[in-house]
Write a structure and sequence with these properties.
With about 80 residues, this protein is of the alpha+beta class. The protein has 4 helices and 2 strands; from the N terminus they run H-E-E-H-H-H. The protein has a two-stranded antiparallel sheet. The radius of gyration is 14 Å and the shape is globular. The termini are far apart. The relative contact order is 0.19.
């Protein structure tokens, strides 16, 4: 499985990623990580996933995304 396929699989399972101090942080249901060797795939692609996140090109699952308008102020912050 290549990196793009892995990211698509993670997004399908609503698993989001982040990186901090060179560590890969995985956010999602533990059950989803234990299916189909997903945890091992994360280990295999850890360095590439961290690079993807650090480059700013990683897009996680839609539920984890926040829409930010051009003025960078979300509507609930305008009050």
């Amino acid at each position: 499985m290549n990196l793009a396929e892995l990211v698509a699989l993670l997004n399908d399972r609503s698993i989001a990623l982040s990186a901090r101090n060179g560590e890969l942080l995985v956010h999602g249901k533990k059950q989803a990580l234990n299916q189909n060797g997903l945890l091992e795939l994360l280990r295999q692609h850890k360095a590439a996933l961290i690079d993807l996140i650090d480059s700013g090109t990683y897009v996680g699952p839609r539920s984890a995304a926040v829409d930010v308008p051009p003025n960078l102020i979300r509507s609930e912050e305008r009050r």
